[in-house]
Amino acid sequence: MKAQFIKRLIKSLIEEHNFLLPKDRDGNPRLSAEHSVLAKNHFGNDILLELLDGDRLTAEEINARLHHNREFLAENKSRPGLFFWEIFIFESDPDADKLAAITAGQIHNLTAKTFLKCLSVNLTAKTVEKHFTTVPKDDFNLTETIARLLAMEAVDAISDSELIELSSQKERELMIPLQSDFPLITHTLIGLNILIGALLLFYSQKKGLNYSRFLIDFGAKENYKILSGEYWRFLTPVFLHANLPHLFVNCYSLHAIGVLVERIIGRSKFLAVYLIAGIMGNILSFIFSTNPGVGASGSIFGLLGALLYFGILKPSLFKSRFGNSVVLTIIINLGYGFINPVIDNFAHLGGLIGGFSAAGTVLPSERKWYTNRLLYLALTVSMIGAGLGYGFQNPQNQIIFKIRELEKLDRAQKWEQAEGKAKEILRLNPRDQSLHVYTLWTLAKSQALSGNYPEAIASAKKLTAIDSANGHYLQGVFYFDMGKLDLARAELEGAKKAGADYEMIDALLEEINRRKEISE
């Protein structure tokens, strides 16, 4: 009973918890009848686990074994994050001396992050007991696994050869398949980002240009220019950065993530994922954000998306090596992006989705429907096509395009056409307040300069509801032009109270007072 329980436990630890048997000098997994050792690396922590037949050991032998393991931990204290688990298995209740030796032999060194912890199993009572209460209290689900096995009915006998083959198979699953020895593309992209950033910054400073304005001219994601036919702006922002800290953070992130991804999937596939993710990030930003955008972060999120897809192909490897880190990184960065209005989180989301779908397109499938490369190719193409189609037709981008047309009509002093264009924009209900204010301002001005003061006043009153200072100011100017001086004075004084800072207000008020004095 005990021997088969130990083998069932070993099988469960290998299959479900990614433990491996140690190897002998010939490189073959080793399994001992007296005690079994298993090991794994869990997010940088080395976990050693020993299964012992507690009935074969005296209290003194238990004490000696634990003392030996404490010395092992002391000799390896330079390896932070070293967990040693001793699981003593008894047919029935162990005697008090053995339990005392088990409890006393543990160590919990939080400073050095080395731990020796013990569990005991009573097969007759079907119980498992922790012998530690200190932090960290996490037992990596060992207690839960043992309790579940104790509650199960006995199954067919498990042979040593089956366990050895299972360990070898699990080792193959956990082995990271490296497609590239040196991350050439990652380092090239970092160098290219630094070179472009340095050249643009140097040139803009030498010429006395505004760097942000210069980035828009040079290739930033700018919706109006894309709407005007500059489609290459879906790609070029990937190589531009807003400032030196932005450049540094993205280059660091690209190195931290890119080296791993490139070595796993290979250079050409890495480059494809990086570029597709960058493009899809800028497409999603084009759809939902009217602000200009630059940066490689969408592509970097795409690399995280590629790692998520890799987790579908290699779930055990993903979970044991970097799964939690990848998921946590995504959650933290997206969460921060949602609370920081400066960050273009739509580019991040688009890049993440694009990287995932691009990885599904370029990575080999395992003949499962959810890893079918044609499925992901169709998904990627469909998302790009649908995104572009909606982006060019969505109301906010149409508003931006019409705003630029309105600006041209305003400069050309074509007031009737400007009035019509402004009304078109207002029918689209612009969400951006600055665009809404500009449109109402230009509409009211166009109506007034066309001689239609009643409608100009009505438009200025609508403006007052969202921008009190400018709305009152325009009404004051219009009433002044109409000769309604009392109304003009009231509106201009209202504009001053609302914070309007126009030199013309005081001049108009003085002129109103002068005219009132003359009339009196």
What does this protein look like?
With 520 residues, the chain is of the alpha/beta class. The chain has 22 helices and six strands. The mean pLDDT is 91. Strands 1, 2, 3, 4, 5 and 6 form a six-stranded mixed sheet that branches. The radius of gyration is 35 Å and the shape is elongated. The chain folds into three domains: 2-174; 184-393, Rhomboid-like fold, CATH 1.20.1540.10; 396-519, Serine Threonine Protein Phosphatase 5, Tetratricopeptide repeat (Alpha Horseshoe), CATH 1.25.40.10.
Describe the protein's topology:
Layout: H1 2-17, E1 35-42, E2 45-53, H2 59-75, E3 82-90, H3 96-104, E4 107-109, E5 114-122, E6 127-130, H4 142-151, H5 160-174, H6 184-207, H7 211-218, H8 223-227, H9 244-265, H10 267-288, H11 297-313, H12 315-321, H13 323-339, H14 345-362, H15 373-393, H16 395-411, H17 415-427, H18 433-449, H19 453-466, H20 468-481, H21 485-497, H22 503-519
Parallel strand pairs: 2-3, 3-5
Antiparallel strand pairs: 1-2, 4-5, 5-6
